[in-house]
Amino acid sequence: MMAEFAQPPPPARWLLFLTVAVGGMRTEPSFAAAGDAAPPGKIAVVGAGIGGSSVAYFLQQHFGPQVQLDVYEKAVVGGRLATVTVNKQSYESGGAFFHSLNLHMEDFVQQLGLKHRREVAGKSAIFTGEQFVLEETDWYLLNLFRLWWHYGMSFLRLQMWVEEVMEKFMRIYRYQAHGYAFSHLEELLRSLGGDTFVNMTQRSVVESLLEVGVTQRFIDDVIMAILRANYGQSVLVPAFAGAMLLAGAQGNRWAVEGGNKLVCSGLLKLTKANIIHARVTTISLHSSEGKPLYQVHYENEDGPGSNFYDIVVIATQLHDSKNNITFQNFDPPIAEFPGTFHTTVTSIVHGYLNSSYFGFPDPKLFPFASVLTTEAPGLFFNSMDNICPINISNTFKRKQPQEAAVWRVHSQHPLEKQELKMLFRSYYSVQVTEWQVCPDYGSVKNLPPIILHDSLFYLNTMEWAASSMEMSAVAAKNVALLAYNRWNHDVEKIDQKDLMHKVKTEL
Asked: Which residues form the Prenylcysteine lyase domain (predicted)?
């Protein structure tokens, strides 16, 4: 799976050596058969990031093209998939990579006729603030030997743990291909991995890894570096979120030629969704012929407005106080959502790397394209990587370490001038974005609901189990199926037990 915010710098492929075997054939998505109930007239989606654009696509796939889809977006389409321009070239500033096991994302790219961006190889290393504790080389066997020499069997034990989790998680694609949905996140997790998966949302990744024999040293050096680079948090994050992240932190990753945000804009164009550039302020409940009807109130540059809908999907963070969506006329009232989101600052810097800071006085000798960091006093950044533009020609080559290049630096706070001077000898430009990349996993214990009301759904619930672009797509498919099955009163497709047996018998 992909990482939380989707992989700031790419951790070295040799860190995990994960190969996940997925049994069975995938069933390609198709239009669901029409139910007995008349289809909804209008559906609203709040948010046009990867979750919102995916759920719009899946909703149309199941309800059919006659349903009107309105997608509200207060900023730009793509959400946390975004680019910035440096010296007339565009670079990913948000979600950077997908993983080869991201089956929904692979399907989207094929449906939209997009292409995988050519990968430009580069070595990675882990830095403590004083020295590198692990350095990737050009020789695979030497990388293996170094892992064994430093950490013994820890990386193999990690691989086995992640592989076991992922093998069970991949069942979700077969369930969804057969139209099954889940009304609670706990039910979804339990259908995949039993109570073990549910418990993994309540215990830390460090506790789980120590239990399977991974050493504390490996956790402090490697696992901590990957978590800091992606989630900006420590090894106290829940085990399930950690497993999803670690599965996506190895090789076989890709990006979209022309920018990952093309997936979002492409899906919305494919569904012919009506994009309303406005901030949703309130959702109020009404009724029509005994069915709930939802009024979405919004504000844009022309002033306030509102529209009525049969189904509403919220694909933005309700935990984020900046959204300030209020709910009216609901009985019982929709409760407030506790918890906060973790902020990571992304600085896109065009300049000359100060390789001396990393112990290389001669910049020509600096061999790394990405640097991850451990948790250490005085370390003011989580990770940094020499990034390539979103359009790569066949003749493109990475800048040499002594040349001016574009670097993406992730940190907990905006970098001060003195900190920039420590990382760069000089620089031409710095562009800063603050992202709420994922939940602060220590801020709440209980998983939020998916169903807020009869036909009012919260897609971003999934982030509280694990945060990534593919997890948003999985959540989108689940919500679309849930909305469809509930609309047509098909209870046999919701929260079913022993789904592996049911799916086998349906083949």
From this structure: 134-496
pTM of the model: 0.90
Distance CA 331, CA 285 (A): 9
For residues 145 and 315, give the distance between their C-alpha atoms in angstroms, rounded to a whole number: 45
- Least reliable range by pLDDT among 24-38, 77-91, 381-395, 475-489: 24-38
* CB contact at 8 A, 294 and 338: no
Q: How many CA atoms lie within 13 A of 314 on its CB side?
A: 29
pLDDT of res. 2:
37
Instruction: Annotate 203-236 with b (16+ C-beta within 10 A) or e (fewer).
Output: ebbbebbeeeebbeebbbbbbbbbbbbbbbbbbe
Nearest 5°: the CA angle 493, 496, 497 is 160
The answer to whether the beta carbons of residues 355 and 366 sit under 8 Å apart is yes
Report CA 290 to chain centroid distance, whole Å.
38
User: Each residue of 352-411: pLDDT tens digit?
Assistant: 999 999 999 999 999 999 999 999 988 999 999 999 999 988 888 888 889 999 999 999
Residue 394 backbone dihedrals phi, psi, to 5 degrees: -65, -20
- Scan for tokens 């239990």, then name that residue: 211
Q: Are strands 42-46 and 311-314 parallel, antiparallel or unpaired?
A: parallel
From CA 299, how far away is CA 416, in angstroms rounded?
Answer: 36
SS (H, E, C) 216-263: HHHHHHHHHHHHHHHCCCCCCCEHHHHHHHHHCCCCCEECECCCCCHH
Q: What angle do CA 298, 299, 303 make, to 5 degrees?
A: 130
